Amino acid sequence: MPRVTFTANLQRHLACPPVDVAGATVREALDAVFAGNPRLRGYVLDEHGALRHHMAIFLDGTPIRDRKAQTDAVAEAGNIFVMQALSGG
Amino acid sequence: MSDRLLVSTRKGLFQVDRGADRWAIAKVHFLAENIALAMVDPRDGAWYATIDHGHFGTKLHRSDDAGETWTEVGVPEYPAHPDGTHDLDAFGRPIPWKLNKIWAMTPGLASQPGRLWFGTLPGGLFRSEDRGATWALVESLWHMPERKQWTGGGADLPGIHSVLVDPRDGRLLVAISSGGVWESSDEGATWTSRCKGLRADYAPPELVEDPSSQDPHCVVRSPADPDRLYMQHHNGIFMSWDGAATWKEITGVQPSVFGFPVAAHPKDPDTAWFVPAVKDEQRIPKDAKVVVNRTQDGCGTFQTFAQGLPQEHAYDLVYRHALDVDGSGTRLAFGSSTGSLWVSEDGGESWATIGEHLPPVYAVRFVK
């Protein structure tokens, strides 16, 4: 199953350890994570499901193409890494 | 009199308490987080703080035990744009339908427990009936055609920074940078412009009196006379004696009529305080001296106070929510963009420094 990992900076605000979940796309995998951690969704996606402006998701080391709906296809052993796009001040 | 301040800063919510002989920082809530605004609800004593996480969005936290513990509650959410795109403002710049910032927090009437009104960027007004757990966009204001004429003032997006609830009947008044003043007497179902008398000399000549050109920086209502309203506008100081039906421009105020915050005396409708600055392309204190202006005769005359405030090479700007007065009218506090915080116990005539090296101060509120 794909593995979803979250930046340590996000762990300051709520618990979100790495988790293995089912999903054929990045969004399906994220939705599986959010199902068990609903508050996390609003920290990564905006109210319309788009990736927040200053957030980034890497899939196997490459930024995802579809920031709006995260439809990028994920392999069975895919690695999804959720992080910030910029460093804060 | 109030013995406690909540100071919202770029790096935390600072709780400042009055000790036996001085005011001092007693506790820092959310250290290192960007706190845009905090509010104490006088109806139930709840504290609210909004955190701008940047990367992770805007969040709202509430404390029901005076800051001992906090719980994350809901935040306003915009509906999806019907075309799946975004609006364009008057200058053709995109206005996304998504929460950018919470910029005003106002409790409902005492007879409406749980009701809160929040003003936001990019210009949506939201209502909660359950102490912030869930929120509803006031659609009538958001869908008003004139709303698309609103533009960002200092920010990239337009925002509602002042939401006033008339204690007599719940009538709503909202002020937008930039988008004028709007009133609703039916709980937000319909809206009427309340900009008569306002002027925007910075606008093209044909738009000087146009409601959407008006950039009120801060509007407050006198608790002692709800028809009395004080406004610090981008163009200067304006005052209304008739509940915003008409406004009068106040001219000739020294050292300047420009600024952001205004505070109204809780008991004397003729008294209010302003913090002047050089207008708008500079936004620094006149001659680099920090002063506070007070009127005690309804903006007929003003006194300027400097005692205890820095009088050389001071470049402190005071944002619109960063000045407050307590329930007695004798204690005031304000904070600055360069991390200074001052308190007065004599109606603003003299000031003591609480801090000079704090993070940028966005909002100052007495716990009343």
Overview of the molecule:
The complex is a heterodimer of chains A (89) and B (368). By secondary structure, chain A is of the alpha+beta class. Chain A has one domain: Roll (Ubiquitin-like (UB roll)). Chain A has three helices and five strands. Chain A has helices at residues 8-11, 26-36, 38-44; strands at residues 3-6, 19-20, 55-59, 62-63, 79-84. Chain A has a five-stranded mixed beta sheet. In chain A, a hairpin with a 2-residue loop joins strand 3 and strand 4 (62-63). Chain A starts with a strand and ends in a 5-residue tail after the last strand. Chain B has 368 residues and is mainly β. Chain B has one domain (89-366): Methylamine Dehydrogenase, Chain H, CATH 2.130.10.10. Chain B has one helix at 139-142; strands at residues 4-9, 12-18, 23-29, 35-40, 47-52, 58-63, 71-73, 87-88, 94-95, 101-107, 116-121, 125-128, 136-137, 159-165, 172-177, 180-184, 192-193, 216-221, 229-233, 236-240, 248-250, 258-264, 272-277, 292-295, 303-305, 323-325, 332-335, 341-344, 352-355, 361-366. In chain B, the strands form eight sheets. In chain B, strands 3-2-1-30 form a four-stranded antiparallel beta sheet, with no helix packed on it. The mean pLDDT of chain B is 95.
Uncertain stretches of chain A = none
Q: Structural class, from secondary structure content of chain B?
A: mainly beta
List how many beta strands of chain B DSSP finds: 30
- CATH fold-type name of chain A: Ubiquitin-like (UB roll)
Main β-sheet of chain A, in a few words?
5 strands, mixed
Share of helical residues of chain B: under 10%
Feature tags:
A: 89 residues, Ubiquitin-like (UB roll), five-stranded mixed sheet, 3 helices, B: Methylamine Dehydrogenase, Chain H, four-stranded antiparallel sheet
Short description:
Chain A is an alpha+beta fold and 89 residues long.
